[in-house]
## 1
Amino acid sequence: MKFPSILAALLVLACAALGAPVIVIDAGHGGHDQGGMPGQRIAEKGYALDVAKRLDGVLRRSGFRTVMTRKGDYFVTLSDRCRISNAQSKAVFVSIHFNGAPNPDAYGIEMYCYRGRESAALADRIYRQLLASTGAPGRGVKSRSLYVLSHARFPAVLCELGFLTNRGEARRISSSSYRQKLAEAVGAAVISRYR
Ligand SMILES: [Zn+2]
């Protein structure tokens, strides 16, 4: 065991001892479900999974226990995504998506939450961190009864990390360093709230 892995193991134990929640990372879509608009040129599912994996790395390195609802390009139903999270003894559900719109001028970052004060507080923190880290325009933190939010037993948020239907924003998102920045921003907000 290398020193960093010992350190990571100790951090995991410390977090578990303090009752830190498991962070359930939900990469939107997958398999036959490409995400986005019908006929959208850049598929949402791949970028969502990429950022989800990067977020998983950020959180694990900080000692958090994580669960991913999918780790590859396959389809997972919305109810199974919720079941994975709701089966934990204590969890926080963070869903990762990219946006799409018929209007190619639409761009920016938005967050969704639905139930409970903690979901709203976490959504707000992630949103502010994302805007600060990326300089992307904000479209707000919105309350909407999306399936994965309304069926969540624990705090749950959904991140829309930019529009793949906007040429400029899609170009930014296609860069791996930008996707790392997105993951680190979401991660920093989660870490500061639950550590
Ligand atoms: Zn989506």
## 2
Amino acid sequence: MDFAMTLWTPKLTDRTGALYRSIADTLAADIDAGKLAPGTRLPTHRELAERLGVTVGTVTRAYAEAERRGLIGGEVGRGTFVRSSGDTPSLSLEPERGEAGIAMDENWPPPLAEGEARRALDESFRKLRASKRWGPLLEYQTRAGFMPHRLAGARWIRRFGLDARPERIVICAGAQHAMEVAFGSITRPGDTVLTEALTYRGMKVLARRLHLRLHGLPMDGDGLRPDAFEAACRKGEAKTLYCLPNLQNPTGIVMPERRRREIAAMARTYGIAIVEDDVYGPLLEGAPPPLASFAPERTYFIAGTSKLLAPGLRIAYLLAPPKGMERMAERAWMSNWMAAPLMGEIAASWICGDIASRLVTRHRKEAAERMGLARKILGTFIPSGASDASYHLWLPLPHPWRGDAFAARARRNGVSVSPAESFAVGPVPCQSAIRVCLGQPRTQDQLTKGLRRLRETLREPAEAACGIV
Ligand SMILES: Cc1ncc(COP(=O)(O)O)c(C=O)c1O
């Protein structure tokens, strides 16, 4: 394939802040303005450094930053290229912090208050000292995990209205690991996996690692569209669906029960396995029944604890259909041996005592308060259907903003958000929108500050921000 070469030289006049970031921002704006087409080869680090009169290190940092945002990609020996918006971005593993910036680009729950965290841990350790099982916790476990922890997992999953049995639960080191266990055992390299057109970026990263092709399906206000799902099933190219019916990441959509029944019935008709990711489910009071309740024989249900208990525990429960259980346990063992049993014990003691319920209640309240702040500050920018239970907010942008360019401008204004492009799968036309993570600022004061900066950015004329005259 031939790629167009470019003599691209960013115009850095009237830019403030770190030079590498200005270069990355200009790159984003130029891509957005159509000055750099997807597939265009960029100058080498050395060439660009010479043209700009900066060090090679600055250009290297700028390109790394642009790659982190999913704008460009490199191939050893071939150069650096502008990505199309549907390409897989690199996952932002280290969101930018510090400076005066407020990060709202990663779906992190607000941290536990110090007293709350101490009380929870004190109670766990007190129970642990009093129990007889601390010895076994220091040993290797069976492949699916320590049975008392699987019992706790069953209890946690029953919150979702599923009849979970501990024998069908595998303990994983977080939901991302559970996804790896599920896809690693039910797919083979080269397989196609169906997803929502906009999906969790961790799925895109995982697909790249497992050499899976993703096929994004159109969505509407109720989530994945059944007609599109059925058409894809009929083609027979994919045997697996990855779906997030509750507070979909990134759109926040809650799929209604009727739609869930339809999707599950189609999966049955066409023999499709479902991986249902429900890490946000417990935030919703009275959530509709999971897909797994309508097609339990083919659904791999992932219940995390990161978003409601604590991400540092690294514990998730994977509920497998009876037929898939052995493969799941084997894959969990092969990939990681096991999640740390001491962490499993803490999660179990929180679930079996009253700490987990207290934390769920607290997070529901906090999410509602944070969404209340967002509604107050962003007003009519917020779409009417946005859920009050969510820590992430999907914000369609005023015309003619594009997600990439808006995110670059917001970053310059001191707040980071994620553009729709970074969640897009395949050729489905991308909405001009951003995802705003309301849970990530550590305090509501910081959130208020971040939302105000966002409002200012939304009020700026898009033309000026894109550099289009
Ligand atoms: C939809 C979804 N699935 C899985 C994960 C990973 O969660 P964990 O921290 O438990 O690995 C996330 C984290 O943001 C997520 O948003």
## 3
Amino acid sequence: MVYHITAKILKGRDVSCREASELYLGKTSLFDLMWAANTIRERFKKNRIGFCSVVNAKSGLCGEDCKFCAQSVHHKTGVRRYPLMPQDEIVMAAKQARDNGAGCFGIVTSGRAITDKEEIMNICRAVRKIRKKLPGLDCALSLGILDKASLDMLKSSGALRFHHNLETSRKYFPRICSTHSYEERLKTLKAARSAGFKICSGGIFGLGETRPDRLDLAFTLRELKVDSIPLNFLHPIKGTALEKAKPMSPAEILRVIAIFRIIHPKKDIKVCGGRVVNLRRFEPMIFFAGANGMMIGNYLTQPGQDPAADLEMVKDLGLKIV
Ligand code: SF4
């Protein structure tokens, strides 16, 4: 079955929901899944790997109640709280990201949305400076639930991507957040697409969702025709509602990456939060499970590992950073 489906995907046809379910929910071994995912990655992404990096440009004090998030006011995590960073600090973080090898730099703010016009203007100014000073670096924005007018304004700054995760399946979402809806997230993504952004949207796994929830998320993202898919794996933070969640095993994480590659053969699949802490010595396997990118440097509220170690890992595997 796995060979037949892989051959079909290599010919440019999509895996059906029934086939993906048989692969992911059935008895296909991890090694067969990874063989399929790696074959597909090599065909459509060659040996090219992309790094992205983010700055937490506004931290803490978010009124939303996402159960996994250290920045929610509903949790007591001791996370740093600060208003929107000055433009020059954002530009400095972008330079650091570029020097570390990132090809895409994300400006992320906590909170339901950036609505203050002055803040939006400041983010636009920061993006313009980055585009001017660091021309090879793509800019992504992750600013919450926004309307078309704000998105149009932000797009005019020269930012390439808008990032907004769906997090999980539509069915499971109300179990992880009660202060906004899945529909609002979908609406933001559609508005960002119509404003001209490339869309970056994925999810976080290990929240207590089932395997069918993960498949559901993968197919919703396929319907949305997202351009890149960040995959995060819960690193339970003390003080959050999910502080006692059981971390996913490396094998289960690799299965998730592989099925996302099989469902999204040509998209960019990036492994982001939870990579280092959850995968440990299995980190290099993400590429053989189908990923063609990863986040480097610090995460939003947690330190990452030395970017030089990530660079070395990719080079040691004979892969090429783009
Ligand atoms: S909206 Fe964003 S910053 Fe706020 S709690 Fe949810 S994930 Fe955290």
## 4
Amino acid sequence: MPKVKALPAKLRRDLYRSMLRLRLCEERLVELYPEQEMRCPVHFSIGQEATPVGVSAALRPDDYAMSGHRSHGHYLAKGGDMNRMFAEFYGKKTGCASGMGGSMHLIDREAGFLGATPIVASTIPIGVGTAFGSKMRGDKKVTAIYFGDGATEEGAFHEAVNFAVLKKLPVLFVCENNLYSVYSPLSVRQPAGRVIADHVRAYGIESLQGDGNDPEEVYRMSMTAATKARRGGGPTFLEFATYRWLEHCGASYDNDLGYRSKAEFERWKKKCPLLRSRKRLLKDKIVTADNLKNIEADIRAEVEVAVNFAQASPFPDKSVLFKNIYAGSGDG
Ligand SMILES: Cc1ncc(C[n+]2csc(CCOP(=O)(O)OP(=O)(O)O)c2C)c(N)n1
Ligand SMILES: [Mg+2]
């Protein structure tokens, strides 16, 4: 591989910090979830932090992003409010979806995070619509749409890619390929030997694969794609290889179920995006051990503020229960 120029030190440090923020948020969530005060299903992305962080660093604050059921990292990395995220987990009025949505319905319009819904692939055409709007307005904004390998098996994905290519829309299709859809590995879902990125290329879209556990690689690829999109060059499909550590849904490990091997799990744990980044930053003298400690302490304090905010917030009033269920039934 040709040698690439190193990224600026500050950016490399920021990428690490941002990943640690996602990790510590979710680790705190793992501790608190069994208390049963948060009653929404939760899909963790521990192990998958590098992709949202690398993509978001390539986006501008007013660019857009959308996601699905596993969206904490996508929301936070795009600038979503941490206090309001925890409040949403607790079903509180101060939550980012007013406590009505839970973990799978995060939204922060001010941060450009236009929403997440758990119907697999459902936000892909919506994100393409957003990008279509940007193109019509000429506002130079880019939309990043996150989804898993499983979502590429949905019809909505294929229609959306075709339309984005046809209209040359400013979209980053970001596929986090973690090898599984719930307990089903790719081998029982797609023909042997298929590479998702190759398959999708047939639509006439630039389609690339990258290391989804390396925030710097994700950043470089996303930056190239975002710059192209902003200049009118159309969409890019980015397939990032990564791995979820915890069970599909919930705060436990589920390796005892036998749907994936211990050896595979251990192999991916060694590729922990934080571990690798930390090693590289120390080796390149971008940070010291003391810097790392301070970064961690700062983030832990921020997370505690968010948890306290959420716990101290009131529940929504019962009168809102039937609002926002059908168009026109709520406040907007
Ligand atoms: C249309 C639809 N079908 C099935 C489900 C149930 N379901 C929820 S998450 C999930 C797995 C999706 O896998 P993938 O897209 O690879 O995302 P990952 O969970 O691996 O991040 C499934 C099948 C759903 N929510 N929506
Ligand atoms: Mg998957």
